[in-house]
Amino acid sequence: MSKSKRSNLRIQAAIDFLNTYGWALLIIAIVLIILIYLHVFNSSTFVSNVCESQNNIYCNKAILNTSGKVLVQITSDHQNPINITAIACSNNLNNLIFQNVTPQVTLEPGQSVELAVTCYDNGNPFIGKTGSIYSGYVVVKYYDIFTDFPGVSNLAVTLHSTPELISTTSVSTTISTTSTSTTSTSTTSTTTIPVPSGIQYYANITLSNNQNQPTPDPFQQEIVITSSSPLWNYINTGSNAGDNVEFFYFNNQTIIPSWLQSINSSEAVFWVKIGSIPANSNKVISIGFGSKTTNFFNGNNVGEAAQLSPTFGEYDNIQNVMNPGLIYQIYYCNSEYIVPNPSDVYQAQLYDGYSSSFGTSCTFSASTQPFLTAVSGSTQNVNGNTENYVIDNYQYGYSGGTGFPNPPVANELNAYVIKQIGFIHLSNPTVFYVVLDDGGIIGYSGNAPSSFTSWLGGSSNPANLINEWKVQGANEYSSSTANPGDYAIEYDYANMHPTQAYFALWSNNPVDYYSAAYPPDGVEPSYTFGTVNKV
Questions:
Q1: Which of 77, 274, 277, 331 minimizes the number of CB atoms within 10 Å of its CB?
Q2: Within 13 Å and on the Cβ side, how many CA atoms surround 471?
Q3: Structural contact between residues 188 and 107, judged by C-beta atoms closer than 8 angstroms
Q4: Taking a C-beta distance cutoff of 8 angstroms, is the pair 303, 264 a contact?
């Protein structure tokens, strides 16, 4: 074969090779150019996304797209549930643009949530090519549901942008747990909030016992909501006022027994029956609000005073909240013929160790814990006469009644004071009767007690049924008629003369007597309301 012919064969082979593989090489070259343009060979593309955790907020993952949206998944490791209220993403902690989480997201300990938010770079929304690096912070605002204390977590992030779509026009959330996965948006919410059925809004109430002793167990806490409180707007104040309110423990949705004592245009007075609050400690409960057409009252664990119900007594549950019997204390003076000042007696407290001169030269001392009467009266001999519905019948030197074994009086000839406070339930119009030797005051009121010291405010209170505070023999007095309903009552007695004594109370119709447990040193725990939240 000639040399020229062999050369032609080589050229032909090269042409055939190009025809066979040229298009493939061209495609590969084009792909390489595109990959280089997209920074695929940039080492930064292979850097892992970093999202640091802080303040018991764990950052599980973070994804940033080229439009500046970041999707971050966080988990709460707080001891109590928290509400996430706002989130921001910025490269500068001094220039944060927060976006509200609407509705707020509640996370139980160990629960996770995904939040999408726009990242900012020096005040401008971040826009970067695929693989661009963004370093900054995702900042999460929240507050502790039980304590209402706010918190902020600055989650440092180093992210490379991807073309991934993160579709959101506002902050939206997806809550996930091991058992449930629900979604909420800026306009609707199907987030599972641990509240009882029917509640649309709720707020936490922190009860603070600042005394060096625990409260009794059970304990009845008075809670007053005034018209100036933000909570007032959520209470039904129209027909059947107050019926859309109930109290509960947030963590397990348990309903707390509650009793609405009174409600008017300026305030609502509730009592809740809870367990003991330890010394120098707090307890958090929650108040829930249904729609203003919701009725939570059932006459069992949620109810109101008998006279407030549309049908008298329909939802009365005083017996399920209060303790049975009036609470009372005796104050003893080791001296004779002492006339205490009734106004000072009205200020007396009922705990063991309390003492006061009651405006005299003698010190009256309470040396025992308070006592309780029976819940209802019985037929007894009162100074020689048979009377029905007798609740108090203590005497010395008269016919009928008993001496003073309970409360104990060391010497019946010395001066002493007995003070009783609590509540009465009247099913029928009722007249009260007393036998007094020497002085006594009894009164009742449908309004909230001003304190555990002077429930009626003074010896001249117009609500008083009987006002007799003078040295005298055993006289019987009757009151004006008290209308059916539930009322606060106080009955104070003083033995002033060093001879006989009588202290009796009864009625013409059955009466049920109740009282709240007396707080340590007569000081009710204080309470503060948290923020109202939408479920």
A1: 77
A2: 11
A3: no
A4: no
Q: What angle do CA 374, 392, 359 make, to 5 degrees?
A: 115
**Residue of 337, 369, 343 whose CA lies nearest to 356:** 343
| pLDDT tens, position by position, 307-327 | 999 999 999 999 999 999 999
Is residue 190 very low, low, confident or very high in pLDDT (cuts 50, 70, 90)?
very low
Residue with tokens 């339930």: 425
Helix, strand or coil, per DSSP, at residue 231: helix
Q: Are 459 and 465 in contact (CB under 8 A)?
A: no
In sequence order, the β-bridge partners of residue 511 are: 426
SS3 57: strand
So what's the pLDDT on residue 44?
A: 42
Contact in structure between 397 and 500 (CB atoms under 8 Å):
yes
Whether residue 235 contacts residue 244, with contact meaning beta carbons closer than 8 Å, is answered with: yes
Residue 184 has pLDDT above 70, yes or no: no
Write down how long the chain is: 535
Strands 511-515 and 439-445 come out as unpaired
In the three-class reduction of DSSP (H, G, I as helix; E, B as strand; rest coil), residue 8 is classed as helix
SS (H, E, C) 138-152: EEEEEEECCCCCEEE
Residue 24 reports pLDDT greater than 70: no
203 bridge partner residues:
287
**71 forms bridges with which residues in the sheet?**
63, 116
H or E stretch covering 244: none
Q: Which token pair is 323?
A: 């303790």
> Are 51 and 157 in contact, with CB atoms under 8 Å apart?
yes
H/E element holding 261? strand 258-263
From the list 201, 104, 198, 172, the residue with the least C-alpha distance to 144 is 104
User: Tokens 């007075």 sit at which residue?
Assistant: 269
Distance of CA 404 to the CA centre of its chain: 42
Please tell me which residue, 109 or 97, carries the higher pLDDT value: 97
Quickly state the pLDDT bin for 276 (edges 50, 70, 90).
Answer: very high
Give the C-alpha separation, 508 to 127, whole Å: 85
φ, ψ for residue 519 (rounded to 5)? -75, 160
User: How far apart (Å, rounded) are the C-alpha atoms in residues 100 and 138?
Assistant: 14
